[in-house]
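1st attempt posting a full record on here, be nice pls
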Amino acid sequence: MRAQIVATALAALLPLTAAADEVWTSDMGKIIYDSEVGDAAIFTFTNVDAYPATLVIPGLAGNYNDRSVHEAYWVGEGAGDCAGFRTAPNGTGSAQWGRALVAFDKPAFPTSFTLLLGFCLDPYVTSIRAETTAN
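the predicted structure (as tokens):
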């Protein structure tokens, strides 16, 4: 009984992970809150070129109640034209990457968002609307 009480108390101290619950739909398919590395939230999605991509949002890890507009970057798996090679914290890397901006509709989970993407260091040229699938 004592072990069960200790286990319950320890579980209450662990941070809540919305990652498994956060999936959005978009014209590009599903966008999934995949993991957290350090202070960065890692989303996976299909980019406009139909290749898998990773979205890295520094400062978003563990933030489920105070979301707004977040600067980010993405790294794709297809051939790229950027002058340098960029690697995401989860190991995905290529010369296909760019700046990103994530604008959540509301500060608390669950919420939809708009994702703006640019190639390399160029201005944003693509907008992807992501609607939450949570009830």
